[in-house]
Automatic annotation (TrEMBL):
Signal sequence annotation: none
Entry protein name: Response regulator
Keywords: DNA-binding, Phosphoprotein, Transcription, Transcription regulation
The keyword Transcription is assigned to this record: yes
Species whose genome carries this gene: Paenibacillus rhizoplanae
PANTHER family the record matches: ARAC-FAMILY TRANSCRIPTIONAL REGULATOR, HTH-TYPE TRANSCRIPTIONAL ACTIVATOR RHAS
Amino acid sequence: MYRLLIVDDEEIITDGLYEAFNQLLPDKLDVYKVYSAKAALEWLARTRIDIVLTDIRMPGMSGLEMSEQIREFWPRSRIVFLTGYSEFDYAYSALQIPGARYLLKTEGFDKIIETVQEVLQEIEQGNMLSELLEQSREQRDSMETAAQGDYLRHLLQDSQVLCADTDALSADFSKLGISLEAQFPVMLVLGRLTYPEGISYMDRRELLTSSRLIWNSHLVEMTRHAWVLDRHGDLLWLLQPLHNAEAVFGGNFARYLEGTLEMIQESCRQTLGLPVAFTVSGSACAWTETGRHYERLHRLQQMKIGDGISMVQIDRSGPPEPDVIRETGVRLHQRVENLAAHLDAGRRERFAETLEEIREGIHSGVSVEEAAELYYTVALVLLSHMNRSELYSLVNEYGKLMRLDEHSSLGEGISYLERLAADLFERRSTAEKERSSEVIERICEYIHSHLGEDLSLVRLAELHYFNPSYLSRFFKQEQGINLSEYIDQCRAVKAKELLVSEALKIRDVAMYVGYEAHHSFTRFFKKMTGMTPQEYRESMHANL
């Protein structure tokens, strides 16, 4: 979903444009309004804005002055200037800004709406993969080598020891062509691609390569970065802001990163048809802590709510605690590592295929000792997952898990593990649905209790620790209705209840449901009910 911010000190124009755009593309355009450049910059510090529709002349800070700060923070934002003046110097200055548009207010709402729709089309066309591939063709071979991936995976396994010597770390980065700096902290972003069912290995690799090109094209603007494909098939990016980015963003680099990841998601969706979920460090960490931060991001990713949605989940809990769950004394070979990854990621079919390979291996003539080791290794994978997921009841219920001798045969023991795994996948699915219902219920309760307050998508996302775009998609997926439509319905229902009482003035009713301007409330109520508030009140009293 794209975001439009309307900025004008003339409230009647701002309110009119806000209502017009709110009804235009509710599934595609999230609309906000403010009455000053200062308020607009406060919004832009909180979240990504794709299009700014602004008066070119305003008290305090002009639209032109504001646009300079906007382009520093969100260089991809598109700006459409409105003015009642036609002086050449203002028009000329506005037209020098790349991608900006210039409109006279006298051209009317239809022309303004048409222009914003054209800008939306330009943004979507700019995300097309063919253009990105052409720009990145020369970089394809040098993006990230296999040696870099092997090195970074090795680094994550024991970062506390391997990253303790900053000089040695810098030397390794230089030799491998890694652009990161060992003396500065680093942020981690874990990305999971949801591939289509039944896709071949080579098609998966092609989609992975294409998505990396998209990510790189966005991240290169303000960051130094490196990536590694982890054992779960997810992409881990290690990021540091460029030196000039630190000056631009100050303490808000995480906000910039969140907005950039949203744009990456939109590009992957438009060009590849591929949903991408991100889990992001809430703050940078020392290199010695990268291994533990990565493990925490991985665990958070497994606890996501919703499925197949392009989300951005921020780790806001601070530095991770040491991981106390360590598997020792067991030799994990590659197939069991894959088994653990499929279980954690919820890939039920892939898990079943890998477990079937293990069963075939047992029947292929391995020794009794090797077969027993294989059983206990798989059992430990299941036990570890149950402990992390706090499914302790399953451990008691399935008491034979760590006692192979209680099974009539080794084959029966493997069948038992299959049934236990099926139960884990089923409980995981049920838990995700329950978490989704709880979150939606909490948001709906908040809306009902705060109808007179700011219920913008960004505000609700901040209160409930969501990314705005993900909250919008998640709410519609669960409720079958846009969040803005749900809020309008709640406000209309409450307004009807209050209008029955003659003790309340219509102005008081408007304030109670979030409308400071009487005329705005009247337009809203008539759109929702077909009557003005006064007409509705009179009709209700006539029926008594």
